[in-house]
Design brief:
36% helix; 138 residues; single chain; alpha+beta; six-stranded mixed sheet
Length: 138
């Protein structure tokens, strides 16, 4: 039973590579009128994650302190896409652990409900293994 719990906490095959994340975003938005405005690293503490991911990461950190696993390096990436035609903005925040994409938060601005629904559908298809956190920017 302990082995199964350990495997559940430490073994996750449903992830994207952190180095491919920005390329996948650009490919996904290339057919739209969004253009990348900026891209830079940010603190992972500024990115919202699901409760399950937060708990899993805390347990992994604890296992690392007990020398039962190697945790890796945390970092965040922020990509801002802007549409000059519609004045819409998407801010993508990616929470990464070594070479794994762990979580995605997307802030959106100036979207009506139908265009937001379309962009959500596209991104859910692009990242099916992630529960994307959507935040309306005020």
């Amino acid at each position: 039973m302990v082995f199964l719990f350990y495997k559940f906490i430490t073994y996750d095959r449903n992830y994207s590579w952190s180095k491919e994340y920005s390329i996948e975003l650009q490919d996904n938005l290339s057919n739209s009128d969004f253009e990348i405005q900026s891209f830079h690293e940010i603190s992972p503490d500024s990115i919202k994650l699901t409760i399950e991911k937060r708990i899993r990461l805390k347990i992994q950190k604890a296992l690392t302190e007990l020398y039962l696993m190697n945790y890796g390096t945390e970092f965040g990436e922020k990509s801002v896409f802007y549409s000059s035609k519609t004045n819409q903005r998407l801010v993508f925040k990616a929470w990464c652990l070594s070479d794994h994409l762990v979580g995605i938060e997307i802030e959106y601005e100036n979207f009506d409900s139908s265009s937001l629904k379309k962009i959500k559908e596209r991104l859910v298809k692009q990242f099916p293994n992630y529960k994307i956190i959507w935040t309306k920017k005020q």
